[in-house]
Each structure stands twice: as C-alpha cells, then as structure tokens.
Write a sequence for this structure.
C-alpha cells in the first residue's frame, strides 16, 4: 500500500511538472497577449504602434511591389465590374 501511495505522488508531481512546461507556458503567453489587448494602456500602445507603422508607410516612396500593385488593381477592377452588373 505504501508503494502505491509513493507511486501516485510521484505520478501527480510528474504530471504537474509536464503540464507547467508544456501547456502552462502556452497559456501564460496567451494570457499576457489578452491582458495587453484588454487593458486601456495596452490599447493605447497598440494605437501608437499602428500610427508609427502608418507613418513609415507614408514616408516610403513605393509601398507596394509591382506584382502587388497589379494584383490589387485587378481585384478592384473585378469588384467594380461586379458592382456594375448589379444595376
């Protein structure tokens, strides 16, 4: 009976350790990201970061590559043609 209790205790401790090093770490990362999104300071920081990225994009001479321009242009033209067919 004593060996059964020792084996059970060792198994429980091993499971806790394995959980903390695998799933626990992932949950901690997810919790940290959600805390950033849910706090007022975190949202303000994200807005500032987005504004900085937008400023960088505006300052660049060519934001899109040639193939991206062609693709977006074709997509917009297709949407325009579909909208004309609605009328």
């Amino acid at each position: 009976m004593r060996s059964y209790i020792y084996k059970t205790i060792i198994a429980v401790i091993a499971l806790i350790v394995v959980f903390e090093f695998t799933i626990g770490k992932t949950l901690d990362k997810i919790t940290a990201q959600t805390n950033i999104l849910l706090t007022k300071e975190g949202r303000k920081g994200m807005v500032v970061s987005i504004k900085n990225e937008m400023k960088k994009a505006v300052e660049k001479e060519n934001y899109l590559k040639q193939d991206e321009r062609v693709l977006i242009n074709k997509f917009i033209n297709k949407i325009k043609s579909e909208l004309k067919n609605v009328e």
Q: What stands out?
A: The two ends are 83 Å apart (CA to CA).
